[in-house]
Amino acid sequence: MNLKYVSAEDAAKRAGKDEFLRNVRSAVIPRLIQKGMLHGKKEKKRQLVADDDALAQLAGLGVETFVQNQQGYSFMVVRAPIEDVAKKLKARPSVTEYEESVKVLRMKDDVGIQPDEKVRQTFLLQMRGTPDWSVLVQTVHWFHSCDSIMVTALACALSKELQTLTAAAWDDDFSGSSLVICEKGKQKEAVSDEDEEDGWVGFYEFFYEHGIFVPRAFIGTEDGRATLYVAEPAKVQRADQIAFKVPRPVESKGPHVFEKLGMMAEAVAEGLDDEAAFMENMRGGVWRQAQAILASGQF
What is the DSSP track for 42-69? Predict the structure, then answer.
């Protein structure tokens, strides 16, 4: 069979006109070739990629449109059907409300947010194009320290209960995006787009490598009622709305900027004066607190 090849740069242009979307795709494609997930070859030092079904499938993967231009976010992904994940979540002590198959609306301007420090209104999604994975969207365009702890705790617990692969992701708008990958109850890997060794590409590569899609989304709240808005509602197979009570030990004590300044001051006091050491310490703290709220039985 004669394969048609295109340059990695030209293939990346299919992600859209936005430079950020193109840059991510352009960086991820060579790494997927190295892992044998795409066919590629070199021609005059140019990286070429086969223009086949595998390349076409990239259009339905990734998290770039979700994370782009967000002032913080938190979400979790689970390699399991939504029915299995829903069953486990309904049994969790922190879940105060669970409503299956709610209506998802199309994104629009001027949607309001009314954050509740004691409750997180979240949405569990099954996407039509990636049914092997379930996505829990927790916060969009805002973030507190408890959010990283909560999604990490859920990822750890579900990976053990379902004996599967999970990942918790967040961005606090200060330290870049972080990813904690769990498998069968154990932390498998921790990644940051600020890491010097792997760089930001490793964060985005994970979602392509494992066939995950997190859509551009927003959670609007009004009068205590949350609604999920997504760019393309037709891509959502099912959406469940879940209210989680924030465990008391990790409730926010004030604006996240003050929480972050406190963490930075502690890091300096402990002699963690470079970015890599600070990020490692931060993720370690998140993991320890996630384990603590799971052990307490409150979450």
Answer: EETTEEEEE-SHHHHHGGG-BSHHHHTT
268-297 pLDDT, tens digit per residue, is 556 556 666 666 667 778 999 999 999 999
What does the block give as tokens for 228? 């999920």
pTM: 0.90
Backbone angles phi, psi at 33, to 5 degrees: -65, -45
Give the integer Cα–Cα distance in Å for 105 and 215: 13
User: 144 and 48 in one domain?
Assistant: no
Q: Domain count for the chain, please give it.
A: 2
Phi, psi of 99 (to 5 degrees): -125, 120
- CA–CA dist 34, 47 (Å, integer): 11
Exposure on the CB side of residue 135, measured as CA atoms within 13 A? 29
pLDDT tens-digit profile of 74-89?
999 999 999 999 999 9
HSE (side-chain half, CA atoms, 13 Å) at 166: 29
* Residue 92 domain-assigned (yes or no): yes
